[in-house]
Amino acid sequence: MSLPRPLIIGHRGAAGEAPENTLASFELALKQGAEGIELDVHLSKDGEIVVCHDPTLDRTTNGSGWIFEAVYADIRKLDAGSWFDERYTGQYVPTLGEVLDIVPDHILINVEIKHSYEGRMEKAVLELLRSRGRFHNVVISSFDHKCMLRLKREEPLAAIGLLYAANLGSHAGYARSLNADILSLHPQHQLIGADDVAEARAAGLRTYPYTANSEADLKRLIDAGVSGIITDYPARLAALLK
Ligand code: G3P
Ligand code: CA
Fold first, then answer.
1. Where is the GP-PDE domain (predicted)?
2. pTM for this one?
């Protein structure tokens, strides 16, 4: 039996070639053949779901400070592109709603919750997805597994994924021990091999390892039969899958 071909999932869009977590980065990922995108979210002071990896604005914008201490109207004025390349000057920090607007329904969106903000983040994300009727092809993931279990209890329609960078022993066994309906495992890519993937598949779990970029790593994961690969270079993975 031949293994299914993995989904191409653009990490923070196409973070290797465009400023991460900007609309330009997501658009580039789609242009390069990504079938899914991964992004990170934080909550602003006024409760907007802000697409940014770090809890502060310092590294990826021309501003500074904590996202939770800033209102979105101020965050929106910042340049989130020129730090990466002058060509991207004018890119801004988008909201999750804006990303939903530009990403077609057939593309998987992996929303990574970086921080729960005392439960306010889960509520905000669920409220947005409910208002858009967009639970199909969205998976919410986090390193905070308790947060994911709370979210799933609150909204059974939401698909959840477990992120981890530690060796958990049996990946599928760990997921089973949580006694919840989990869609996908998102291990740091070196942690997972063909046997783990097979065990996960038999348990009805998808495998979306992160963040593999070199040809050798991408090829290893393709051969292991993973369900999808989260990569900064969607075009590189697309070329390997041709
Ligand atoms: O979601 C996979 C991966 O993005 C998790 O690590 O630090 O890149 O958000 P990080
Ligand atoms: Ca992430």
1. 6-241
2. 0.98
The interface pTM score, or ipTM, of the predicted complex is: 0.99
129 neighbors 109 (Cβ within 8 angstroms): no
Question: Which option is the CATH number for 7-39+104-241: 3.30.360.10, 1.20.272.10, 3.40.50.300, 3.20.20.190?
Answer: 3.20.20.190
Map out the domains of the chain as residue ranges.
7-39+104-241
- Identify the segments of the chain with pLDDT beneath 70: 1
**Which residues have C-beta within 8 Å of that of residue 101, sequence separation ≥ 6?**
none
Q: Given ligand 1 and candidates 138, 163, 191, 230, which is best to mutate, with the most ligand atoms within 8 Å of its CB?
A: 163
Distance 112 CA to ligand 2 centre (A): 6
The structure tokens 């593309």 sit at 107
